Amino acid sequence: MPSAPPDNRTGKTPFALVAKAFAPDPAAPPVAPENAAHSLRFWQRRVLVSTIIGYAVYYFVRKNLGIAMPAMEQELGIGKAQLGLFLTLHGVLYGVSKFANGFLGDRCNARVFMVAGLAASAGFNILFGLNSAAVALGLFWLLNGWVQGMGFPPCARLLTHWFTPQKLVTRMAVWNISHTIGGGLILILCGYLVVVDWRLCFYVPAGIAVVCALYLWKTLPDTPASVGLPEVGQATVKTTAGTPGAPGFAEILKSHVFGNKYIWMLALANFFVYTIRYAVLDWGPSLLTQAKGVAITHAGWMVAGFELSGLAGTLFAGWLADRFFGGRCIRVCVLYMALAAVATLLFWRCAGDSKLLNTVLLGVIGFLIYGPQSLVGTAAANLATKHAAATAIGLTGLFGYASTVLSGWGLGALVAGWGWDAGFAGLGVAALLGAALFAIAWPARAHGYQNPEPDRDDMR
C-alpha cells in the first residue's frame, strides 16, 4: 500500500506533521533565579485552574446523555437495554482510550492533546444530536467515548510535573472537583434543556466545549521546562535493581506500573467505585422519574446533588489522607468505600418516595464515592511517579470504565427484567467488594520515589 504523499510545502508526511504538533514543547530560555519562585507559583495556579475548568467541560459533552435518556426513550422508542448498551460501549471504549492515551499522554504536549480531544468531543455531540437512528446514535456515542479518553492523560502529565509528591495529594483532591462541577452543572443545565428538546442537551454543551477549547489553547503550558523553569522537585525513581537513576520508559512501566501489585489492586477496586458512580449518574434521572415519581427537572437537581456532594467528599478525602494517613490514599479509600456500601443499601431499603430522604442519601453516596474516585488516581500517580503517571492512571481508568458493562447494559437489562430494587441491591454488593479490594492494598507506600527531597513547590 503506497504511503501518504508528502506535504509539498514542508516535504514531510501528514503523519510526521501530526507527530510534530503533539510533540512536547521545547525548553524555553531559563527564567532568572530571582523571578523563578514568583513565576512557578503563577504557572501552578494557572495549570490547576485551567485543568479544572477544562476537565469539567469534558463532562459537559460526556455526561449529558443520562438526563436525555427518558425523553429519547419516549420519543424514539429506544428501550432501556439499548440505552444501557450505549452507555456500556461508550464507557468501555473510553476506558480503553484512557489507557492507550496514557502512554501518549506521558510523552505528548499536554495542551495540544487536551484541546484536540475536547474539540473532537464537541463535534461528535453535534452529530449525535442530528440523528435519530439507534445505530447512528450508538456509533457517534462510541466515537465520543474514544476522544473523551484524551482528557485525563494530559491533566495527569501536567499535575505530576508541576507539583511535588508531597503536594500532589491535596492538589489532585482540589483538581478532582472538576468531576463534580462538570457532572453537576450539566445535569442541572440539561434538566431544563430536555424539557424544550432533548437534542439541545447535545448542541448547547458542544458550543460550550468549543469555547473552552479555545480558552485552554491560550492558557495551558506543557512542562515547567517549556516556560523556562526547572523541574519541580528532584526526587529520583527506584529501578528494579534498587539503585537510583534515570531508567528508560519501558523499565519504569515494568517496575512501577505493570509489576506493581498495589496498582493492580487499585485498578480492580476502581471497577466497583465506577460501577456505583456511573449507575447513579446515568440511571439516576430514570430511576427518580420512573420509580419515585419525581419530575425530570427535580431529578436533575437531585442527581446534581449527588455530584456536588462529591466535591466536599473529594476535598475532605484529600485532607484526611494528608493529615492522618501520611499521604497513603488507599487507607482512606477503605473507610470511604465501606461507608458507601452502607449508604447505598440505606437508599435502596429506607428512602421510599421521600424526596428529602432520597436527596440526602444520594448526597451521602456522592460524598463517599467521590473520595475513592479521586484518590485512586492520586495513589496511582504517586506510586508510578511522574514518569509514568498517565499510564498508571490510564490502567486504573481502564478497569473503572469497564464497569459500564455492569452499570450500563447490565443494570439496564437487570432493571428491565426484575425492577429497580434488584439493581440497587447489586450496587450494595459492588461497594462491599470495592472496600475489600482496597483493604488488600492497605500496606502500599505513599509514593514510588526513592529519596524525595523536601517540598520545593515554592522554591524557598
Walk me through what this model shows:
With 460 residues, this protein is mainly alpha-helical. The protein has a single domain (39-223, 246-440), classed as MFS general substrate transporter like domains (Growth Hormone, Chain: A), CATH 1.20.1250. It is built from 18 helices and two strands. The chain has helices spanning 14-22, 33-60, 65-76, 80-105, 110-129, 134-148, 152-162, 165-175, 177-196, 200-219, 249-258, 261-290, 296-324, 329-350, 355-384, 389-402, 404-418, 420-440; strands at 237-238, 244-245. The longest helix has 30 residues, at 261-290. The model is unreliable at 235-246 and 452-460 (pLDDT under 50).
Q: Keywords for this structure?
A:
single chain; about 450 residues; mainly alpha; Growth Hormone, Chain: A; two-stranded antiparallel sheet; 18 helices; 2 strands; about 75% helix; globular; disordered C terminus
Mean pLDDT: 81
**Computed CA radius of gyration, to the nearest angstrom:** 22 Å
Shape: globular
How many β-strand runs?
A: 2
Q: What level of helicity do the residues show?
A: over 70%
Global structural class = mainly alpha
Our estimate of the beta-strand percent is under 5%
CATH superfamily: MFS general substrate transporter like domains
What is the CATH topology?
Growth Hormone, Chain: A
Largest sheet: 2 strands, antiparallel
How would you describe the oligomerization state of the chains in this entry? single chain
- Tell me the count of domains: 1
Question: Total number of helical segments?
Answer: 18
Task: Output the CATH class name.
Answer: Mainly Alpha
SSE order, one letter for each helix or strand: HHHHHHHHHHEEHHHHHHHH
Outline the low-pLDDT stretches.
235-246, 452-460
Strands side by side in the biggest sheet: 1-2
* CATH architecture verdict: Up-down Bundle
The first-to-last residue Cα distance is 58 Å
